[in-house]
Amino acid sequence: MLLLAVPLYLVYSVSRIYHLALGASGMAAAYGLYFGLSKGWPLGLAIFLAIAVAVSLSLISYWLLESAARKKQTMLGLLISLALGIVIESLISIIFGTDAKSLVNGVLPIISWGALYITIPGVITILAGILLAIIFVLLINKTPWGRNLVGIAENDHLSASLNINASKIRCGVFIAAGLLAGFIGIMTVMNTALAPQTGFPLVILAFIALLIGGITDIRGTIIATYLIALIPELIINLSSSEWSLSTNWKMVIVFILAALVLIWRPKGLFISKSRVD
Amino acid sequence: MGYLFTQLARYSEAAIMSTGAHLAVAVTNIFFLGIPVMSTLAAYTLVITQNKGIPLIWSLFLSLFSVLLTSLIFVLAYLKLSADSFTVFTLASVLAFDAVLKSWDSVTGGVLGIAGIIRPNFILTLSRLAWFQFGLTLIVLLAEYIILKTWLGRALLGMKENKYIVESSGISTKRLGAAVIIISSFFAALAGIVTVWRIQFLDPGFGGLVLLIQIMTIAVVAAKPKIRWLAISTLIIVLLPEILRLLNLPPTIIGHLRNLLYALILLIIIRKISSNLLPQKRFI
Hints:
Chain A is an all-alpha fold and about 280 residues long. Chain A has helices spanning about 1-15, 20-40, 45-70, 75-95, 120-140, 145-155, 155-160, 165-190, 200-215, 220-240, 250-265; strands at about 110-115, 115-120. In chain A, strand 1 and strand 2 form a beta hairpin. Chain A is globular, with a radius of gyration of 19 Å. Chain B has about 280 residues and is mostly helical. Chain B contains 13 helices and 2 strands. Chain B has helices at about 1-25, 35-50, 55-80, 85-105, 105-110, 125-150, 150-160, 165-170, 175-200, 210-220, 225-240, 245, 250-275; strands at about 115, 200. Chain B has a two-stranded antiparallel ribbon. The radius of gyration of chain B is 19 Å and the shape is globular. Classes of the chains: A mainly alpha (about 280), B mainly alpha (about 280). Chains A and B meet through helix 3, helix 4, helix 9 and helix 11 of A and helix 3, helix 4, helix 10 and helix 13 of B.
């Protein structure tokens, strides 16, 4: 979820658009890899296909959303992205079917640490999530590139007057976000199963993390992601046998949590007060 | 003849539900995506209370009351959140409600759903049900027409254009937005109730994203705040997937093709007529 929250944050920071199709794009990349592997292609070629799918969908997303981003039509951008997500999911369902598929045959290798058991792809996902979070916090807060991103989000006319090409940067961010979404799609389905509808709940959870954390601050997003990943798991695992909750309740718990937090702090938990013009 | 009555009923259900979406999206520019939740909640409350032996009239009342209470939660979210956060919040509610329906199987029947739902005596046959639904559709469309022709409709259209001007006229835009959410929820609840009477079966697939994409497509295709546009766009969107029947495709992919078709229409229409959907920018 953290991995997906980072690209969502990136796209939002340059376009002010909630890019809902990112989850479906990630799943499409994972299906690209699955297609290559199931046809007996070498791993490198299958990965290349997955990357090609991710980049192509990023470019399509950019082409569809650029006009809305430039005109600051954020709600239309959200609707376009939702429709694009449905198009991708429907195409995957038509081509590959809706039954769950597995990228890895057999039992996944496990690392044990005391009472904790975790799969190798799980460890990679956690480490990649932490690493990417640190990298992007530093990139956005400490580099000229990050300041450009913030500048475009705040005032792209002013950024243009400083010779910053907003469209080019947005295109680059869409491609980076698509590649990250593809990576998380592949890592997610290595731990679970590959199904067309996997991406949408994941992207909604990541958006809730963005809203809870305060959408303009990546540090808040990272903390909120861990909060909404851990709190439902704790509630589910600590529920008594009489009132035991299945993992299906996770989405409900997250939603209630989000509703309570957002009613209390509508702009997110970690947003700092700023001057309003 | 049965096929025609089924299509008439489907048209009526879509029109009633889309009237709420049209009022919210095309008239007021509030992207309230929780409409499938309201429709499914109303249907489930009606069926569960009837199965407990509660008379129809009280079940209907409880059904609409539960929708009213839930719509107040959305109103609270609308008052507190920014427009795009509210949209994502309402979208998340669709998934959360779906999880409730699947998980709380002692009440909702879980993924297996509830079968054998009995229609009320006055609409036992499909033809009677279809004509009843069509009559209800005319009433709902007339209600929206009246709303649009009164001060409320003008205020809603004004809110879409510039809410600060509406505020300066002494009208509370918060109350207007709240009214739109409650009215949309009420229409969605009506549609949910009449739909469950037709299909006589309920499961978590009753609402969800599939229904959402259909009604949003109708609302966006209608674009202009006019009843005739809504009626025509509902007709097009409901009947268009019927072409797929002629292609003799396997039934497993027809549903996905229909979703693909709706989403593509939505994409094309948004790209082509986005100016009609958004407040008009005037340069002086």
